[in-house]
Amino acid sequence: MKNRIKVHKRLNLYFTWPLIVIAFFAALAIGLFFVSINAGIVAIICTAVYAVAVIIIHLVNRKKMVHELVEFAEEYSQVQGEFIKDLVIPYGILDGYGQLLWMNTRMAEITDNKLRENRSFLSEFKDITLEDLDFETEKVINLVHNDKNYRVELKKLIPPEDFKGNKVLNLNVDRPYFVAVYFFDETQMKKMQKEIVDQQMVTGLIYLDNYEEILNEVEDVRRALLIGLLDRKITGYFFEMDGIVRKLEKDRYFIAFKRQYLSGLQSNKFEILDEIKEVNLGNDNPVTISIGIGVGGSGYNQNCDFARAAIDLALGRGGDQAVVKEGEKIYYYGGKSKSVEKNTKVKARVKAHALKQILLEKDKVIIMGHRVGDIDSFGASIGLFKAAKAYGKRAYIIINETTTTVKPIIELFNSDEDYLNDTFIDEERAKELIDETTVLAVVDTSKPEIVECPELLSLAKSIVVVDHHRQSSSIIENPVLSYIEPFASSASEMVTELLQYVSDSIKLKKIEAEALYAGILIDTNYFSTNTGVRTFEAAAYLKKMGADITRVRELFRDDLSDFKAKAEAITKAEIFDDQFAITECPSEDIESPTVVVAQTANDLLSINNVKASFVLTDYNNKIYISARSTGELNVQLVMERIGGGGHMNTAGAQLSNCTINEAKRIIKETVNKMMEEGDL
Questions:
Q1: Is 637 helix (H, G, I), strand (E, B) or coil?
Q2: CA distances for 348 relative to 330, 342, 401, 610, angstroms
Q3: How far apart are CA 435 and CA 460, in angstroms?
């Protein structure tokens, strides 16, 4: 409207300026009379002649000029309309409710002329909704139509105020505007982008998890044949994808292939994991491999870094699985079998030597486990405390909350003279003590968000991690020493092994040996689950150090209220899918509901045909879940799906903003879905 007014003013000025000049000449002629009468007469005559000529031209040509301007505008409008009509970009105009008002030829072509009969734009392009037409000024939508990719740009057109009441336009009161629609065909560009992505190189590493153990099981004459068969399996699998496989060491391979094949590997869940297990030349245990894939990096070097991080994560989760690291995203496949125990203690010796060097370089040691600490966390902390004291270092153990299971054994230490002087501290005191001369030791967890004091992880310059749980994508970053063994029964077992190699002068006191023994005892459910040869060797060492097994058992006798709570939970238990038990445990009048929940989950495994148990409790405005299995399936995978984690046989999770019944439903749906997908 403003532009129209401006044009109107310009035309009026064009037609009136000669009249203004006449007035100027008349004034000039009058002025000349005062100078010379003759000059004034001549000026008056010239002005009169000019005025007559201008008036004649104005009267004769005005209508003709206006007519020509109108004709030009009309022709210009027609040319412009033809250009828009034949524009190669599909273009249309809608009202505020998606009814097509006008479209060009290309828009009609891409819709096969359907819009000429049915003017409903939204019914033809279902990816564009009525809500999409309500926007400020512009909006972009990507959609697929007739197997072509389009970028659709929407622009709001608001008519002038004097048009809004026009009955011909019939604009809706709620949406008094038009929407201009432009379609840009990006099919070829999308295709080329996909080709570029598909041609990217994916790098990976493959490790044979139990290479030495398998070779020891096979006769000498069959060893070379077994190695050759494994090489052929791995090489052949990736050769079909036009990939390359290079053997780095006797039990390690480097692989590279195009990214276009990665989706196939992920969809069949890396079936090579199961194919390798079928290789049998007299070996008692199946061969398992771990695969780490790096993709989506800024270059080949970063992809290799991603692959190394992925293989470390696969091994840290117990092996027999594939991990794909794509930038910050991590995907897990496999991991359904039990971790194979390593009979050799070479790794324990190496880690013990590294721990010794770290202790010698520092002045203080601060030790912490996970929040709501258990016996295993406490026992492992006592073991590392003893190692620090063996080298004359000042050591502290962080305990913010004392549970009922830990309280009896802590009371024993509170009466021991070696543990009286500020040994057990809270997180606030730890923040005051930590400095550059301090090493921070984390036991029984590798997740930064669940340690006793997460802030210490950013304050500490040196961090040591000792854990027996399978790793998740959330791990403590940049530790100077990381000792993670998923096959170990407990952190107490791992620390017990370290103590035997870290110093020859270490001699455990009776209560120290009992604390470590108690940690092993509880995490193995009294040596009934997740035990191996090294578990019993560690227990034997602690018994030799004076651990009183009878007294340890007496420390874990239940209160009557705890016993009643477990009985009530077991009474309410239900079996779903004929093999899973689920129940809820009361938390009222229970000092440590999470401990009772874990004990109940263990007890439910005694029921016939129950392969896994899930026990829930509502505590501190959260739903705590404890999951246990007999080893036939991996409950860690189930808990990871709902935001938790843990071990193959022992896992847990915490849910916020939901009820017990909602949590039960989530667990059941997760288990059923994973069973259907073959992930359990």
A1: helix
A2: 29, 11, 31, 36
A3: 7
The Cα–Cα gap between 377 and 466 comes to 10
- 289-295 and 321-326: which strand pairing? parallel
Neighbour tally for 354: CB within 10 Å: 17
Cα–Cα distance for residue pair 107/92, rounded to 1 Å: 7
Instruction: Report the candidate in 337, 340, 341 with the shortest Cα–Cα distance to residue 634.
Output: 337
Residue 337 has pLDDT above 50, yes or no: yes
Whether residue 96 contacts residue 179, with contact meaning beta carbons closer than 8 Å, is answered with yes
Per residue in 189-221, pLDDT (tens digit) is 888 888 888 888 899 999 998 888 888 888 888
Nearest alpha carbon to residue 479 among 591, 576, 595, 355? 355
* Contact call for residues 359 and 388 (beta carbons, < 8 A): yes
Query: Rounded to 5 degrees, what are φ and ψ at 623?
Result: -100, 115
CB 385 within 8 A of CB 467: no
pTM beyond cutoff 0.90: no
Dump pLDDT digits (tens) for 225-244.
889 999 999 999 999 888 99
Coil/strand/helix, residue 417: helix
- Quote the distance between the C-alpha of residue 78 and its chain's center: 56
Helix axes 346-361, 375-390, angle to 10 degrees: 60
CA distances from 222 to 13, 225, 232, 253 (A): 106, 5, 15, 21
3-state class of 477 per DSSP? Answer: coil
Q: What CA–CA distances, in Å, run from 72 to 17, 67, 79?
A: 23, 9, 10
Write down how long the chain is: 680
Cβ atoms of 289 and 314 within 8 Å: the answer is: no
Q: What tokens were used for 577? A: 């899918």
Percent of the chain predicted with pLDDT > 70: 88
